[in-house]
């Protein structure tokens, strides 16, 4: 069922009002995890409460505990929940977004004040500002949908529940506990879920995202002498921790990106014909990734292999060494202890535990081959499981039809190389099919300087969210 044409016209006619709503949101510097901005994060939660209440939504702010910022104990930002509609004949849709943002200062390299929504003076339609695409733009998009229906006197085609958190940029602390505690209360009866907190792969092609890689982050600690030593006095007389560490880390991954830990490759789920077809259809060229990294350094010249390397296969990256000399100049020190840091991006069949078992055994075995008298520890510091949804579920079919309706083209079906931990929490705890429905483009620069959202994406994204609800209401659920 196509979206009500009155709704579409209202969105077109009220672009200026919707941009002003985003302006108000961006001007609240809701940087989470920073004492200087605690009140601003609270103000942003209150802004949402007032907006949603004015749009006919039953809203609550829920406390979810406290945390420490430095040595100060402060309340975690509240979770804002809202619901509108309770027709038993309608689909129950849950949407998620976050109202906190990454830090930003003008002196970081921004062309404009990051907390003032600034239209590109060159007329490109870009709207610059921290949070414009991550995630205030999409959250305001849902509010725009509600306003259009309220002002037009139209009933929503679905029953809508909303959950907006203020700690996503700092690990969504305690959100999993909140979801678990409300599983049979606020979240009871939810049929499907939509999250708009990711982006198109490029700047031209809308997409639906049905998978996320997980992550295991590890440290290898090598301990040798009791203190740092002078290489002129002790070089050539002791087992050096740095030498041992580099020897071990060099055995983790090859220059061609192959993970060298035995057993990893054997666990990777085989590519299905349906998967292969989805990857082959993605609108992508090597120039897209070369432009993003600023160099021609892809491991493969094959676009499908490159996409699979980014989205559906595991990867191992070396991140750094702690305890080593790194300042400018020369210092002839032998570090007493060093920590090497690396991570593995997880995919289905590669979970936190079975991957860690393989990593620990392999690292210990490789260290033993060195015959070193130093001591080694290898351990997981944190992990997040991978997630994949059924892209043939009616939730995705509805979003597919809505995308064609709004953009006049079929969406790419993508998987993200990074992690959005809340997706897994909602999917696992509530047992839902979760749709990732991006609003922004691949060049929006979330977390970076000069973050932006294009006016066309913001306005068409509002239409997309509304159209998705109409298609969800009409789609064959079988």
From TrEMBL:
Its cofactor is Mn(2+). Gene3D superfamilies: 3.30.70.360, Zn peptidases (3.40.630.10). It holds the Pfam family M20_dimer. Binds 2 manganese ions per subunit. GO terms for biological process: proteolysis. One of its GO terms (molecular function) is metal ion binding. Residues 210-368 form the Peptidase M20 dimerisation domain. Mn(2+) 1 binds at residues 134, 169, 447. Mn(2+) 2 binds at residues 98, 134, 197. The active site is at 100, 168 (proton acceptor). Keywords: Hydrolase, Manganese, Metal-binding, Metalloprotease, Protease. The record marks 230 as: Important for catalytic activity. Substrate binds at residues 197, 230, 332, 345, 419, 447. It comes from the Eukaryota. InterPro entries: ArgE/DapE_CS (IPR001261), CNDP/DUG1 (IPR017153), Cyt/Met_Dipeptidase (IPR051458), Peptidase_M20 (IPR002933), Peptidase_M20_dimer (IPR011650). Belongs to the peptidase M20A family. PANTHER family: BETA-ALA-HIS DIPEPTIDASE, CARNOSINE DIPEPTIDASE 2, ISOFORM A. This is Peptidase M20 dimerisation domain-containing protein.
């Amino acid at each position: 069922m196509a979206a009500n044409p009155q709704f579409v016209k209202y969105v077109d006619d009220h672009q200026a009002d919707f941009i002003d709503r985003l302006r108000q949101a961006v001007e609240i510097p809701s940087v989470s995890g920073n004492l200087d901005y605690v009140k601003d994060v609270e103000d942003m939660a209150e802004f949402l409460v007032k907006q949603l209440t004015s749009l006919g939504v039953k809203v609550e702010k829920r406390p979810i505990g406290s945390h420490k910022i430095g040595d100060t104990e402060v309340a975690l930002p509240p979770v804002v929940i809202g619901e509108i509609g309770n027709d038993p004949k309608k689909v129950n849709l849950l949407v998620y977004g976050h109202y906190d943002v990454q830090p930003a200062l003008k002196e970081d390299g921004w062309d404009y004040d990051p907390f003032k929504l600034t239209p590109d003076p060159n007329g490109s339609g870009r709207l610059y500002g921290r949070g414009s695409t991550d995630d205030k733009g999409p959250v305001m998009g849902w509010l725009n949908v509600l306003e259009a229906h309220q002002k037009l006197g139209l009933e929503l085609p679905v029953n809508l529940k909303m959950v907006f958190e203020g700690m996503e940029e700092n690990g969504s602390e305690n959100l999993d506990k909140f979801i678990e505690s409300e599983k049979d209360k606020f979240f009871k009866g939810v049929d499907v879920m939509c999250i708009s907190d990711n982006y198109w792969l490029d700047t031209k092609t809308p997409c639906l995202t049905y998978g996320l890689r997980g992550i295991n982050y590890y440290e290898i600690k090598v301990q040798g002498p009791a203190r740092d030593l002078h290489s002129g006095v002790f070089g050539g007389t002791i087992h050096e921790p740095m030498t041992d560490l580099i020897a071990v880390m060099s055995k983790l991954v090859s220059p061609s990106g192959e993970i060298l830990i035995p057993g990893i490759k054997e666990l990777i789920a085989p590519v299905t014909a349906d998967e292969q077809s989805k990857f082959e259809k993605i609108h992508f060229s090597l120039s897209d990734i070369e432009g993003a990294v600023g160099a021609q350094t892809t491991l493969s010249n094959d676009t499908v292999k490159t996409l699979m390397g980014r989205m559906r296969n595991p990867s191992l990256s070396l991140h750094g060494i702690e305890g080593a000399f790194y300042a400018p100049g020369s210092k002839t020190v032998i570090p007493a202890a060093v920590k090497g840091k690396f991570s593995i991006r997880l995919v289905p069949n590669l979970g936190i535990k079975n991957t860690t078992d393989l990593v620990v055994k392999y690292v210990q075995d490789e260290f033993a081959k060195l015959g070193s008298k130093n001591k080694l520890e290898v351990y997981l510091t944190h992990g997040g499981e991978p997630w994949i949804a059924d892209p043939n579920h009616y939730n995705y079919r509805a979003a597919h039809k809505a995308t064609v309706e709004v953009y006049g083209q079929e969406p790419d079906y993508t998987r993200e190389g990074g992690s959005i931990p809340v997706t897994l929490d909602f999917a696992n705890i509530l047992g839902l099919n979760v749709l990732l429905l991006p609003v922004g483009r691949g060049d929006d620069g979330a977390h970076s300087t000069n973050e932006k959202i294009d006016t066309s994406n913001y306005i068409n994204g509002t239409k997309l969210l509304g159209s998705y609800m109409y298609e969800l209401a009409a789609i064959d659920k079988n």
